TrEMBL record:
Residues 300-350 are annotated as: Disordered. Residues 176-220 form the Zinc knuckle CX2CX4HX4C domain. Residues 32-110 form the DUF4283 domain. This is DUF4283 domain-containing protein. It comes from the Eukaryota. InterPro entries: At4g02000-like (IPR040256), DUF4283 (IPR025558), Zn_knuckle_CX2CX4HX4C (IPR025836).
Length: 350
């Protein structure tokens, strides 16, 4: 808390009433020479142009890496200080320059107070489709001044191997759109002529608006694509139900007389003739002794005796005393000769 308070006290205007400090004459002269030989450079697309890399790369592109030094400024510019003035002028004349395929603007330091400081860029432009009768210095200069600030021109006569060429050097506002075709009214009342312009050493630019400060992906004038509303997904279960219902409604009914025989029309005699005899072949009837000495029969599966093969009769039930049915009991005995025997036990006498 105390530290912040004392830092605030240092912002007081103590000393503002004193006489200004004066630089020495030698320092002023040296500084004036450096400013006169200084070239300030700014990238037109700062998001794609690293200042440190630009400071190290541009002197090599100028082939002056051992005759110039760079200094990064707080405003996003680079100040290059040359050893000789003709080196600085040669860089300006051989422009424009680019870094990372994006253009840069440059101005001498002494123009820092001009209204268009670091706002312009110069190009050599070749003009196409200009009729031969209008290919002269006067017409070319007039067209150039309507495009920007005219700086020079060069007319090349045609030869046997090459056509004629029209070149102009024009300084443009670097932050305004660039155009590559323009209609020019050469004759009053006549049809306009479409001229095409080709910029020498021009690299990346926005193909939507023609500016040098961004690409088409970041253009503010690019139309925003409208997203289509999501389509409703069909209900799969509902479709399946509809398909099943349709099949039930349209499926032809089979002819029962042709394919199937109704259950109630199946003949019972045929059924017993095919099913019952094989089952009876595996049934054995054994005699059993009841309480009253009457022979009975116990049916046991799995027998193959001779008596079984010819006998298909039901075992006789022993006589039952209907007077006292609640006192009857069943007796089960198992012997080696007869197998399992079941008999009724009479009630005990009181």
């Amino acid at each position: 808390m105390d530290r912040d308070l004392w830092l605030q006290f240092q912002h007081l205007d103590l000393g503002s009433a004193l006489q200004p400090l004066q630089l020495s004459t030698d320092t002023r002269q040296r500084q004036a020479n450096e400013n006169r030989l200084s070239l300030v450079v700014r990238g037109l697309n700062p998001t794609q142009q690293n200042l440190t890399w630009m400071r190290n790369t541009l002197p090599r592109a100028w082939r002056l890496h051992d005759r110039v030094r760079g200094q990064l400024n707080d405003d996003g510019t680079i100040r290059f200080i040359f050893d000789a003035e003709h080196h600085l002028l040669s860089v300006i004349e051989r422009g424009p320059w680019s870094f990372k395929d994006w253009m840069v603007v440059m101005d001498p330091w002494y123009r820092r107070l001009y209204p268009n400081y670091l706002q312009t860029i110069s190009f050599w432009i070749q003009i196409f489709n200009l009729p031969d009768e209008y290919r002269n210095q006067r017409v070319v200069e007039d067209i150039s001044r309507r495009m920007g600030q005219y700086e020079g021109s060069r007319l090349v006569e045609p030869t046997r191997d090459s056509p004629s060429e029209v070149w102009v050097r024009v300084k443009f506002n670097a932050y305004e759109p660039f155009y590559f075709v323009r209609h020019v009214q050469l004759e009053e009342g006549g049809p306009p002529v479409l001229l095409r312009f080709e910029y020498q050493r021009l690299k990346k630019f926005c193909s939507t608006c023609g500016r040098l400060t961004h690409d088409e992906a970041n253009c503010p004038l690019a139309p925003i694509p409208e997203l289509e509303p999501p389509q409703e997904q069909p209900d799969v279960n509902q479709d399946i139900d509809q398909q099943v219902e349709g099949q039930e409604l349209h499926e032809p009914q089979q002819d029962l007389n042709e394919y199937d025989e109704p259950i109630e029309e199946i003949h019972t005699t045929e059924y017993f003739h095919d099913v019952v005899p094989p089952l009876l072949n595996h049934i054995r009837v054994q005699p059993a002794v009841t309480l009253f000495g009457q022979p009975g029969a116990i049916v046991e599966a799995g027998s193959t005796s001779g008596q079984e093969s010819g006998t298909k009769r039901k075992a006789e039930d022993p006589p039952i005393d209907e007077a006292s049915p609640s006192h009857r009991q069943r007796i089960s005995e198992e012997t080696d000769a007869t197998g399992l025997v079941v008999a009724l036990k009479p009630p005990e006498e009181p």
